[in-house]
Every structure is written in structure tokens, then in C-alpha cells.
């Protein structure tokens, strides 16, 4: 069996790749040496690349071709509708010249940071320290385990039917508990799951739909539907998954389930026919990078001049989004560019801040005390006193920085990015807050954005 495995060694996993090698090669397709030539992203699915000379034939048989063709015919598909803009105004997904903006890779962010002058770098660190001290001191812990979820978990353990690990259970339960805490979700222990301020003719109109963005296999929605009596569920996910919760959810005859296989960037929520006129809650467990910003725009498109985009926010009932992977954030997609610009930060400094965030989760540490007790000022001051900091350059300064200071800086940058999103929600007239929803020992990605209509008291 071992001879049929790819011979590429994975040092982080301390084993060889488990995939089968290609015919005539010791390696699988992922690790086989690439042919010489120009490799370009596939225009149908940019997640993989193809030789330029093979592009014409590839686009005719790309595995995602059929899905892309069928998706383009859906009424809720509008290419780049939630993408944002590279400029200050949130009007389109192109720059001022009409050319589509390019994704800034991690390597590009790192290189731009290394090219900074030392005074520019020192000034950026000072800004980050000041912003964290002035904006992020009131972040609270809100670790929840609702009774209804606890009973559901106990029953699943007894029946041996829990399909996920304990760390995922704790996160899912706390997300739902925080929605319950802000009053937009009521558990199924004798209470309706949603209350409207005005009487309605049908009881089922009291029941909101729930949209899980970046749903993956849909197990957050599984717990939500079982514990809170939700009757309409929409799972938004661009990838195809096996072992989904859909089969179990569809066994509930009173539940309407719809899976939308689409990128959040291209989803026109107002054009989803079965969602029109229905109140909804928006959820998401670990929406990587810009997916959080795309989701916020998807739920609140009223900033657009198109009058047809005015009705979704009127049915908004609440939101709970666990953010993560801030190093993948992009200036183009970020919802609150004005927040950074007003603080005197440039697009280039924003990308540097997103690059720093990867330090927060690259080792065995958490943010329980680092951001409040550790800063980089003393490190930079010592460099200034030595007098050689302006000679050795930014790359050397970063490589010499101690691990705890690097981690602290990363956590602070994550909070600053999420604070901008929080301010954006409040600017849209919502009661919103940012909390830690699980201990860092469960997940260092423990930021949860919460929002509800301001008149829902």
C-alpha cells in the first residue's frame, strides 16, 4: 500500500502524501514537477492553474464548467455584486480605469512591507499600538452554552451521532447562545423562535429563515434547526462537500432546506425567490478573510444606487459571524475603508496589517494576555538606541522580533480589522458588538460579530 502513495514528504504532518502517484511518476498531480511554460489561473475556476498552451482545450472540459454554466442562468447570480471596489467608493469591482482589481497575495504583502523604510515601519507599529489601546479595550468574553444545545449534545453523545469534534460543538453552541442573548433567537423549549412586533395572520410567518454563509457541511445549521425550531434554511457555499448535514436535515419534513452553491461575492440575496418577504438571520462559522465583508454587503446592499436593492435589509433579523483568516483580507473587499482612511492608514498599510495577523495563529499561543501586556514599542526603542536599525532594514527587524511580540502584534491587527467591520454595522443603524465567543484554547480564531435591528428591544 505504501508503494502506491505519493513520495512527497509533508514535514508538518510527519508523513508522505496519501494521494496516489501519477502513472510513470513517484508523485501525485499536486506534487509532480510542473511542465515548463506559462501557468495561468483557469478562467472558470481560478483555484487551479493550467499551462497557457493548454488553456483552449482545458476550458472545454474543466470540471466546474457545467456548474458555471448552470449558475450563470440563476436569477440570484450577479457577478461581483458584493465584491466592493479598490477605490474609496463602494460602487463596483473595478478600479477607476475600468480594469478588474488584482488580488494582493501574501507574498506581495510581505514584499511591500519589507520595502518600507524603517521610519515608515516604526510609524506603522506606533499606529497599530495606539489604535488597539484606544479602540479595543472594551472587548468582552461571551462564552455561551444554551440549555437547549447542552441537551442536544448530551443526546447526541448518548446516541453516538455527533459528527464533529468537541471544539466545533463548543463554537457552534456559543454562536447560537449569543444570538439568543441579543434577543433575535428563542429556543424551542416552549417558545417561538422569532417574535415580530406586529401581529401576523399565520404562525409560520413568525419563523425566520436562517442563511448560513460559508456553510461547508452545514453542521452549524444542523444544531440550529434541531434546537431552535427553524423552518427555512439556506446554506450558501461555493464548494461541493461530501458528508454534509443535508441528508439529516431533509429528514425533517417541516424544514425547508435550500443549498445555494455560489460564491458569496456573486449572490444577489434579493433575487432568491423563496427568501423574498421572509425575515432572516445571518450566520457564519469562520468566514475566512474577505468572506466576512462579502457577507455583510450581501445582507445590507442598500448603499447601492439601484433601487431594486432596497428590500433585503428591511427583513434583516439578526447576525452572528465568526471571523477568521484575516491575512486573506483584501482592500478591495473590505467594507469599511473609510474607517482606515480616517485613522490615517493607507491601502498599503492595511495590507501590511492583514499580513501581520498571520503571526497570531502560527504558533502555540493565545490572546488571553498577549495584546494587553505585550507591545513592540520596547523592541523598536532598543533598535533606535542601538543606532543600526536604519541600516539593517525592515526584514531583519521582523526576523529578530521575539515570538510573543510577533503574536501580540498579530492579535492586535485582527481586532483592529474587526473593529472596522463593527463600526460599519453600527453606521448602518444596527445594535452591534464584537465579543470573544470561545476560549483561545478552543480556537484562537474566536472573534464573533453580533448585530440586530436597533428597534428590536
Automatic annotation (TrEMBL):
Residues 39-66 form the CHHC U11-48K-type domain. One of its GO terms (biological process) is tRNA methylation. Keywords: Metal-binding, Methyltransferase, S-adenosyl-L-methionine, Transferase, tRNA processing, Zinc, Zinc-finger. One of its GO terms (molecular function) is tRNA 2'-O-methyltransferase activity. The keyword Glycoprotein does not apply. Its EC number is 2.1.1.225. It comes from the Eukaryota. It catalyses: cytidine(4) in tRNA(Gly)(GCC) + S-adenosyl-L-methionine = 2'-O-methylcytidine(4) in tRNA(Gly)(GCC) + S-adenosyl-L-homocysteine + H(+); cytidine(4) in tRNA(Pro) + S-adenosyl-L-methionine = 2'-O-methylcytidine(4) in tRNA(Pro) + S-adenosyl-L-homocysteine + H(+); adenosine(4) in tRNA(His) + S-adenosyl-L-methionine = 2'-O-methyladenosine(4) in tRNA(His) + S-adenosyl-L-homocysteine + H(+). It is an enzyme of class 2 (transferase). Coiled coil: none annotated. InterPro entries: Methyltransferase_TRM13, SAM-dependent_MTases_sf, Trm13, TRM13/UPF0224_CHHC_Znf_dom, Znf_CCCH-type_TRM13. The keyword Methyltransferase applies. Belongs to the methyltransferase TRM13 family. tRNA methylase which 2'-O-methylates cytidine(4) in tRNA(Pro) and tRNA(Gly)(GCC), and adenosine(4) in tRNA(His). This is tRNA:m(4)X modification enzyme TRM13. It comes from Cajanus cajan.
Amino acid at each position: 500500500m505504501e508503494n502506491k502513495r505519493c513520495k512527497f514528504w509533508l514535514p508538518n504532518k510527519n508523513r508522505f502524501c496519501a494521494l496516489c502517484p501519477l502513472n510513470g511518476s513517484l508523485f501525485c498531480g499536486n506534487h509532480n514537477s510542473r511542465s515548463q511554460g506559462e501557468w495561468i489561473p483557469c478562467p472558470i475556476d481560478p483555484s487551479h492553474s493550467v499551462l497557457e498552451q493548454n488553456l483552449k482545450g482545458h476550458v472545454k472540459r474543466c470540471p466546474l464548467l457545467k456548474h458555471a454554466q448552470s449558475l450563470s442562468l440563476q436569477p440570484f447570480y450577479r457577478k461581483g455584486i458584493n465584491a466592493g471596489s479598490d477605490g474609496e467608493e463602494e460602487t463596483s469591482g473595478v478600479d477607476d480605469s475600468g480594469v478588474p482589481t488584482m488580488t494582493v497575495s501574501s507574498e506581495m504583502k510581505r514584499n511591500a512591507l519589507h520595502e518600507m523604510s524603517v521610519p515608515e515601519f516604526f510609524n506603522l507599529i506606533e499606529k497599530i499600538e495606539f489604535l488597539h489601546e484606544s479602540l479595543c479595550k472594551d472587548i468582552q468574553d461571551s462564552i455561551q452554552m444554551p440549555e437547549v444545545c447542552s441537551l442536544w449534545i448530551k443526546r447526541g453523545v448518548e446516541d453516538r451521532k455527533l459528527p464533529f469534534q468537541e471544539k466545533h460543538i463548543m463554537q457552534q453552541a456559543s454562536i447560537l447562545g449569543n444570538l439568543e442573548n441579543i434577543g433575535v433567537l428563542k429556543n424551542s423549549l416552549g417558545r417561538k423562535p422569532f417574535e415580530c412586533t406586529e401581529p401576523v395572520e399565520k404562525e409560520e410567518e413568525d419563523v425566520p429563515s436562517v442563511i448560513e454563509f460559508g456553510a461547508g457541511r452545514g453542521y452549524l445549521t444542523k444544531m440550529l434547526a434541531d434546537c431552535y425550531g427553524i423552518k427555512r434554511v439556506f446554506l450558501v457555499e461555493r464548494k461541493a462537500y461530501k458528508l454534509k448535514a443535508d441528508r439529516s436535515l431533509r429528514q425533517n419534513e417541516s424544514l425547508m432546506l435550500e443549498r445555494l452553491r455560489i460564491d458569496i461575492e456573486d449572490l444577489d440575496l434579493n433575487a432568491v425567490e423563496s427568501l423574498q418577504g421572509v425575515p432572516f438571520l445571518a450566520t457564519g462559522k469562520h468566514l475566512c478573510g474577505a468572506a466576512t465583508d462579502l457577507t455583510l454587503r450581501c445582507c445590507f446592499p442598500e448603499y447601492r444606487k439601484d433601487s431594486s436593492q432596497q428590500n433585503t435589509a428591511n427583513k434583516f433579523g439578526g447576525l452572528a459571524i465568526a471571523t477568521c483568516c484575516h491575512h486573506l483580507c483584501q482592500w478591495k473587499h473590505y467594507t469599511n475603508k473609510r474607517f482606515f482612511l480616517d485613522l490615517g492608514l493607507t491601502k498599503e498599510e492595511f495590507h501590511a496589517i492583514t499580513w501581520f495577523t498571520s503571526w497570531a495563529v502560527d504558533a502555540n499561543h493565545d490572546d488571553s494576555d498577549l495584546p494587553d501586556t505585550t507591545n513592540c514599542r520596547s523592541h523598536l526603542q532598543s533598535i533606535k538606541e542601538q543606532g543600526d536599525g536604519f541600516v539593517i532594514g525592515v526584514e531583519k527587524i521582523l526576523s529578530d522580533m521575539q515570538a510573543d511580540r510577533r503574536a501580540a502584534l498579530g492579535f492586535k491587527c485582527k481586532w483592529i480589522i474587526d473593529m472596522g467591520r463593527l463600526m460599519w454595522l453600527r453606521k448602518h443603524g444596527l445594535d452591534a458588538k464584537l465579543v470573544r465567543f470561545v476560549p483561545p484554547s478552543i480556537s484562537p480564531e474566536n472573534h464573533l460579530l453580533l448585530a440586530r435591528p436597533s428597534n428590536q428591544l
